UniProtKB/TrEMBL annotation:
This is non-specific serine/threonine protein kinase. GO terms for molecular function: ATP binding; protein tyrosine kinase activity. It comes from the Eukaryota. Pfam families: LRR_1 (PF00560), Malectin_like (PF12819), PK_Tyr_Ser-Thr (PF07714). It is found in: Membrane. It catalyses: L-seryl-[protein] + ATP = O-phospho-L-seryl-[protein] + ADP + H(+); L-threonyl-[protein] + ATP = O-phospho-L-threonyl-[protein] + ADP + H(+). Residues 1-28 form the signal peptide. PROSITE patterns: PROTEIN_KINASE_ATP (PS00107), PROTEIN_KINASE_DOM (PS50011). Its main location: membrane. Keywords: ATP-binding, Leucine-rich repeat, Membrane, Nucleotide-binding, Repeat, Signal, Transmembrane, Transmembrane helix. Gene3D superfamilies: Ribonuclease Inhibitor, Transferase(Phosphotransferase) domain 1. It is a single-pass membrane protein. Residues 605-719 form the Protein kinase domain.
Length: 719
């Protein structure tokens, strides 16, 4: 059953273990046998890595498919693409789920558009995406929006979309049924990709779906910035339908395109069937093309841009579809706004794709393309497909990475409940309580942190030391304990420190006092009953202080010893009564380990990190106030299993204690909110170790495997 990771075996530190899957399954067997329960427990479908937002992957490597606004824990397979869509709950901590108005819901509408997540609060709300391939490689990110009168107000909002700290686009919808898709090819500089919706005062932002695809080799390149999709056209389409996954391995969406004076040509023989090509173009798109009806005319088309400062990259894709005779040639060149563009004398190869693109970005208020045959070409030009991307300069640098790391650790250290999402300083405004320096396009720095009256507990976070540009720090009116750390005096730009109204102890570091006396620092330390200013502390230390401390601490030790002896005696009695009335003892124990729902929210940092799902519900990572890591399993509202099974599992785990079993820390039962808190096993999933799926660890030897089997059997026997 469970193998636990205390340092008994050489490998155990690495092979901490298990489980969600093995776990839920075993419980179900236990329950049905021992308690003859009819409920079937935890038919876990998937086991998820412990890293945040790293999901089990679909057919497309690195793909993330989020249907924004569906209930948490919900997922489904899209019939058209065969891709699995999940809820956005693990990717954002704010917003409200809404269904679109039934007037706009139809069976033909893509399921992901029938619901939205709306953001009535906060000027900006950010999704955090973390594709497994990490940073420095190209991703396609697609955000879709359809209003569908979800709020019954019939007012189409307008808002801005950001990628990281930089503007991506404005979202403007013409009417309630207008579907707007924004797509960008983006190579993030960090593993976390933020997609932010910014309220510009023209109605509440919302979003319908969010998709991420990984481009294995980045065929699409820019000198700088990212590429926002302007057009992606399937020329000569005979079906008049869009093409996407599975026809397109990257799930690019191709729109049908035909021109008035052109005819379409097609072949039934697949293109690039024997060769892996750079752009992985879908055969369905490349087997159709357009050519001018007048075989001596050119292929002309233009795009009205309006703004001549915008820059574009254009990709034209060609493949010969006709088997040419000896005396036939197809040979053509391209011009843009009258100037030669791309390569001269293009001769497409039969059933092989070829892409022509510009190395330098092009611009103009109009992009007028003309493809014309060369002098001795016997056949007219063709065009199979085309893509146009607009360059999005990523001018604004994100917040200094050290500050980001520092403030992120402070956030998780104190389980800060503010709406802290995306980059700490940008876009638009910093996180609540933060002030950042304005360095133009350079990385902003955090210069002020105000966590006054924020319910902080525990010691002063050492990560504050990483905010090296900090000038102002307000931690007043909290419940902070421990010492006022010496490192605060090494924050060289600090000019104001307010820790008034806490429970700090020890003495104020002399350097802080010195700086305050020199007028370099505004220091407020009042209302900390156990905190000494230096003069008094020295006195105490030199005289009675240590003696008093010694006496007090020995008294404390004696008292503790008495308490332990007394409680051991009590426990013996309790053990006896367990024989008589297990129910009674159980209730008592349960009461001690009962948590309020609000505490669960705080422990899991508002259910931020999902580590697994099962039939029972979702399992979250959590952190207790004492710093111990836990796994919190919440009973989902939609779960068929009810209170009885929930109690059975809690009761069962309360009874059983064994080295090889994960123990129960506590439970929560408040109305319909039910959850169990387990000891956290950091090592991940045993299955991965056994199967060797995780290549970052060395494979287990047979001896280790045998030991796991023995441990599992011991854990089993303990029940
Ligand atoms: C949306 O509709 C589905 C049923 O189609 C329902 O289960 C769900 O609760 C609704 N969501 C909201 C937020 O009303
Ligand atoms: C909504 O706007 C789209 C895009 O402008 C347009 O194609 C469509 O006809 C409009 N629908 C209605 C009902 O006005
Ligand atoms: C393909 O082209 C031929 C003519 O070459 C035409 O008869 C046929 O209808 C086209 N196929 C489709 C699916 O349109
Ligand atoms: C075909 O195009 C050529 C060159 O543009 C033009 O001279 C000729 O008149 C056109 N023929 C027809 C039938 O339109
Ligand atoms: C090409 O050759 C074929 C016979 O192989 C002939 O029928 C046709 O007219 C020729 N076309 C040209 C443009 O010379
Ligand atoms: C294509 O046409 C150009 C210009 O007429 C010529 O220089 C080139 O050799 C031709 N290429 C082929 C493969 O016929
Ligand atoms: C086209 O012209 C080029 C030279 O201008 C010549 O090398 C080539 O063979 C010609 N192609 C045909 C099919 O006549
Ligand atoms: C810090 O935040 C509190 C409220 O959270 C506010 O009352 C206080 O004025 C702020 N301090 C400064 C210096 O802005
Ligand atoms: C201190 O914080 C509590 C809540 O944590 C708040 O009710 C109280 O008003 C705060 N006092 C001051 C002086 O800010
Ligand atoms: C934070 O500061 C400490 C002390 O200087 C340093 O050891 C640590 O590497 C820093 N952490 C980060 C993430 O910069
Ligand atoms: C420190 O914080 C307390 C409580 O929030 C506040 O009353 C006091 O004015 C602050 N002191 C300074 C110097 O800002």
């Amino acid at each position: 059953m469970f193998v636990e990771c205390r340092g008994t075996y050489a490998w155990s530190s690495k092979v901490c273990l298990i489980f969600l899957q093995v776990f839920a399954l075993t419980i179900s067997m236990e329950e049905s046998v021992a308690l003859a329960s009819d409920g079937v427990f935890g038919d876990s479908e998937s086991v998820i890595n412990h890293k945040p937002a790293r999901r089990k992957l679909d057919d497309i490597a690195g793909s993330i498919n989020i249907d924004c606004g569906i209930p948490e824990d919900f997922k489904y397979i899209d019939a058209k693409t065969g891709l699995q869509y999940t809820s956005d709950a693990g990717f954002i901590s704010s917003g409200i789920n809404k269904n679109i108005s039934s007037k706009f819901s139809s069976t033909t509408l893509h399921k992901s558009l029938t619901n939205v997540r709306r953001f009535p609060q906060g000027k900006r709300n950010c999704y955090t995406l973390r594709p497994p391939e990490g940073h420095g490689t190209m991703y396609l990110i697609r955000a879709s929006f359809m209003y569908g009168n979800y709020d019954e107000l019939n007012q189409v909002p307008q808002f801005d979309l950001y990628i990281g700290v930089n503007m991506w686009d404005s979202v403007k919808l013409d009417n309630a049924s207008h579907l707007v898709m924004k797509e960008i090819l983006h190579a993030p500089s960090d593993d976390d990709i933020y997609v932010c919706l910014v309220n510009i005062g023209c109605g509440e932002p919302f979003i319908s779906s969010l998709e991420v695809r990984h481009f294995h080799d980045s065929s699409y390149r820019t000198e700088s910035g990212s590429l926002a999709l302007y057009r992606r056209l399937d020329a000569g389409s005979t079906t008049n339908e869009i093409v996407r996954f599975k026809d397109d391995a990257y799930d690019r969406i191709w729109f049908p395109y035909n021109l008035p004076d052109c005819e379409s040509l097609n072949t039934t023989v697949p293109i690039d069937s024997h060769a892996e090509t750079e752009y992985k173009l879908p055969s369905k798109v490349m087997t159709t093309a357009i050519r001018p009806m007048n075989s001596s005319a050119s292929l002309d088309f233009d795009f009205y841009i309006g703004d001549s400062t915008l820059e574009f990259y254009v990709y034209m894709h060609f493949a010969e579809l006709e088997a040419l005779q000896e005396n036939q040639t197809r040979n053509f060149s391209i011009t843009l706004n009258g100037n030669p563009w791309g390569e001269a004398n293009i001769v497409p190869k039969y059933l092989h794709s070829r892409t022509v693109n510009n190395k330098q970005p092009v611009r103009g208020s109009k992009l007028k393309f003309s493809i014309h045959k060369t002098l001795n070409s016997s056949l007219p030009p063709i065009l199979n497909a085309m893509e146009i991307y607009m360059v999005k300069g990523l001018l604004q640098a994100p917040t200094c990475q050290e500050d980001v790391n520092g403030i992120s650790r402070i956030k998780s250290f104190y389980l800060v409940e503010k709406n802290w999402q995306g980059d700490p300083c940008a876009p638009v405004q910093p996180w609540d309580g933060l002030t950042c320096s304005n360095n133009g396009y350079e990385s902003p720095r955090i210069i002020s942190l105000n966590l006054s009256s924020s319910g902080l507990r525990g010691k002063i976070s050492p990560s504050l030391f990483n905010l090296t540009a900090l000038q102002f720090l307000d931690l007043s009116n909290n419940s902070l304990t421990g010492e006022l750390p010496e490192f605060l005096s090494r924050l060289s730009f600090l000019t104001a420190l307010n820790v008034t109204g806490n429970k700090l102890s020890g003495s104020v570091p002399p350097d802080l006092i010195a700086r305050s006396e020199k007028g370099l620092l505004s220091l407020s330390v009042a209302n900390n009953p156990d905190l000494c200013t230096s003069a008094q502390c020295k006195e105490n230390k030199n005289s009675v202080g240590p003696i008093v401390a010694a006496v007090v601490s020995s008294l404390v030790i004696i008292f503790l010893a008495l308490v332990i002896i007394w409680s051991l005696k009590r426990r013996k009695k309790a053990t006896k009564s367990l024989v008589r009335s297990p129910e009674e003892t159980w209730s008592l124990k349960m009461e001690n380990q009962r948590f309020r729902y609000s505490e669960i929210v705080s422990i899991t940092n508002n259910f931020q990190t999902v580590i697994g799902t099962g039939g029972f519900g979702t399992v979250y990572h959590g952190c207790m106030l004492n710093g111990a890591q836990v796994a919190v399993k919440m009973l989902s509202q939609s779960s068929k299993q009810g209170i009885k099974e929930f109690r059975n599992e809690a009761r069962f785990l309360m009874r059983v204690h064994h080295r090889n079993l994960a123990s129960l820390v506590g439970y929560c039962h408040e109305g319909t909110d039910m959850g169990l808190i387990y000891e956290y096993m950091a090592g991940g999933n045993l299955q991965n170790y056994l199967s060797g799926a995780d290549i970052s660890t060395s494979p287990l030897s047979w001896r280790e495997r045998l030991q796991i089997a023995v441990d599992a059997a011991q854990g089993e026997k303990a029940n």
